[in-house]
Specification:
Helices cover about 40% and strands about 20% of the residues. By secondary structure, the chain is an alpha/beta fold. The protein has three domains: about 1-50 and about 225-290, P-loop containing nucleotide triphosphate hydrolases (Rossmann fold, 3-Layer(aba) Sandwich), CATH 3.40.50.300; about 60-165, RuvBL1 DNA/RNA binding domain (OB fold (Dihydrolipoamide Acetyltransferase, E2P), Beta Barrel), CATH 2.40.50; about 295-375, Helicase, Ruva Protein, domain 3 (Orthogonal Bundle). The strands form five sheets. Strands 2, 6, 7, 8, 9 and 10 form a six-stranded mixed beta sheet that branches. The chain has a three-stranded parallel beta sheet with strand order 1-11-12, with helices on both faces. It has a three-stranded antiparallel beta sheet with strand order 3-4-5, covered by helices on one side. The chain binds adenosine-5'-diphosphate (ADP) and magnesium ion (MG). Adenosine-5'-diphosphate binds near residues 8, 304 and 330.
Amino acid sequence: MAGPPGSGKTALALGISQELGSKVPFCPMVGSEVYSSEVKKTEVLMENFRRAIGLRIKENKEVTELSPEETESMTGGYGKSISHVIIGLKTVKGTKQLKLDPTIYDALIKEKVAVGDVIYIEGNSGAVKRVGRSDAYATEFDLEAEEYVPLPKGEVHKKKEIVQDVTLHDLDAANARPQGGQDILSLMGQMMKPRKTEITDKLRQEINKVVNRYIDEGVAELVPGVLFIDEVHMLDMECFSYLNRALESSLSPIVIFATNRGICNVRGTDMSSPHGIPVDLLDRLVIIRTQNYDVADMIKILALRANVEDLVVDDESLAYLGVIAQRASLRHAVQLLSPASIVAKTNGRDRICKGDIEEVSALYLDAKSSARLLQEQQEKYIS
Ligand SMILES: Nc1ncnc2c1ncn2[C@@H]1O[C@H](COP(=O)(O)OP(=O)(O)O)[C@@H](O)[C@H]1O
Ligand SMILES: [Mg+2]
């Protein structure tokens, strides 16, 4: 996606991620991220690539699906340890109290399980997964980011096909740093001295092998997701060469780049290229042009934004904000909304009116006006 600043590239990416839902991986990153850590640049790219590739694994396992009624832990204070955990479980067919191993307690904490949630516990590994909130609680709050699920129907003990959505990076991380109580690997980890492990290329190759075998056997299904690299012109030649190669691998996600650059140098070289992207990579892309919004669109977006932030803005103010957006930038106009609402409240109003906007737009400058002012008053500043 190529277009001037403020033409909605990042907003489009957010929209895509919402549309994909939680089952398809979406990994957003900003080009400059590759320089911000102590890790090699290509390592950052590789990790994000693997975050954007999903695997849907189907397994049949003995599980106990439940809705904990109450948990009673023997946590106690300092120095004491948990000897066991008691959970009250409920399905449509009945209730049951289970006395469980303390490792389950850690898993319950990690999954932030509370009374009224539907969870399952995997019989052989003791892994706990939170499925969602029981729909009996669905009317608790008006607005929630919860997924409501019905109370489990069968017996408290039952077999169930579990579908797990993981990314390749999850698999890398799980195998590099086995964590408490989830599988045999971790048991070994607990017995051995804790060692510093990290994700290596060798580990990734091994994981790829297993993944490919799972896919061949029909146990797992590949879910290619989306890797979104914003401000892609921040990447340098080394990164671009790496991307060129990675895009050809069979385990590759869909990659979206966004840039607001015209013809400029590829970072770190004196080679000039459209969008700051080397031509051989550019050659493989389809380019979507994003264009500046017109006033009507900007007013629509401002109204949306006000709505999301629960602000009441009258039409006259919206139109005036539209003018500001056109003169300065859409982003600047959006940023004036919340100070304007504070001014309105201070004056005892719930509704933002044009005067409030005028007041705050006199207080806050946008980048362009500030630069103009600097030029006009150059002699007053130290340079
Ligand atoms: N379609 C849209 N719906 C809602 N808000 C939008 C939309 N397009 C742009 N915006 C808002 O306009 C501003 C600029 O858009 P942005 O996506 O950041 O531009 P770009 O990434 O192209 O520089 C942001 O505050 C963004 O939230
Ligand atoms: Mg952007």
